[in-house]
Amino acid sequence: MEHSVLIMGGSGQAGAATAALLRRWYPELPLTIAGRDLGRARRVADELGGATAVTIDLRRGDLGLQGTDGYSAVVATVWDSHLNGLRYAQDRGLPYVSISSGLVDIGPEIVAAGLRAGAAPILLASHWYAGLVVLAVLGLAREFDRLDTIEVSGVLDEQDSGGPAATADLARLLAATSAGHVRRDGVFDWVSGPDAQVEITSVDGAVLPGQIIPILDVPSLAAATGAPNVRFAFAIGESAGRRRGGPASTEVKIDLEGVDRAGAPLRTSRYLLHPEGQRALTALGLALGVERLLGLRGDPVPPGLHTPEALIDPGYAAERMAEIGATLAGVHGDH
């Protein structure tokens, strides 16, 4: 590939980890690490090898990249606050992916994408782990003939909230609304107050207070499966990994209920786990999206608006998750 993948925020945790995965998969893929601090970006680029570093200014329409070489894709691992990264990609017909908009402030991005639907392929991946949870659920859903209820519960260790950009994103999204977004009896609805409070059981049996949140996983899973009841909750607290005396781990509990191929009632509960926290899974979700957008796997992606589950095969995602040390485990006490 002649042109380089422009990774905005490439020197941050999510960006650097995504770049490292892409380098591992595609040693010859040109990468450009873009950030506000050129020295930090250069350090990441030097560690990767075959990468360059640039500074960007998200307030400028040209991102401050005047006179630089062309790019093959634009990857926003930081909040594209002015949508200049999206506009830069559209003006040049480049694939674009973002992970920081969230359900509550995704409107401007969708409108900008819809206004120029034929300009470029755009992947909205502001899901948990950049879409990996949706793909994991869809993999488990293959056991079902009909899904009636999907309940997803994530645990984020308070010491594993990511770098400054990720922390700012979380604060921004939680400040937008305290209500959660669910699908209930086939209707998308908002829940707040006590109705949004839940208890989340960790993989080791510990119970944490959680909150139903507005997140893209809910409409993605509802549309992909047809399940009339979908919710996503998360808790911030000490992870199972730290309770064992190790580093902060990350986990997502997936509860599914419906009927099997023979029409009999079926329930399944699994944990998606990673012992080293959320960074590895977020990076993998993003790397899978970039790989697909670049046409390195699968058919070319046409211009328009896309979500992870529309582009990435759940079975392939499961293989890649296993490669980086993620596991699917049964519930506590389940033999």
The name CATH uses for the topology of the largest domain is Dihydrodipicolinate Reductase, domain 2
Q: How many DSSP-defined strands?
A: 16
Shape: globular
Overall pLDDT level: 93
Structural class: alpha/beta
CATH homology superfamily of the largest domain: Dihydrodipicolinate Reductase, domain 2
What is the beta-strand fraction? 25-35%
Can you name the CATH architecture of the largest domain?
2-Layer Sandwich
How big is the Rg? 20 Å
Low-confidence stretches: none
Organism: Nonomuraea polychroma
Protein name: Saccharopine dehydrogenase-like protein
Structure write-up:
By secondary structure, the chain is α/β, with parallel strands linked by helices. The protein folds into 2 domains: 4-128 and 281-313, 3-Layer(aba) Sandwich (Rossmann fold), CATH 3.40.50.720; 132-277 and 316-330, Dihydrodipicolinate Reductase, domain 2 (2-Layer Sandwich), CATH 3.30.360.10. Helices cover 32% and strands 29% of the residues. It has 11 helices and 16 strands. A 7-stranded parallel β-sheet has the order 3-2-1-4-5-6-15, sandwiched between helices. Strand 1 (4-8), helix 1 (13-25) and strand 2 form a beta-alpha-beta unit. Helix 5 packs parallel to helix 7 (217-225) and helix 5 crosses helix 11 (314-323). The radius of gyration is 20 Å and the shape is globular. InterPro entries: NAD(P)-bd_dom_sf. It comes from Nonomuraea polychroma. This is Saccharopine dehydrogenase-like protein.
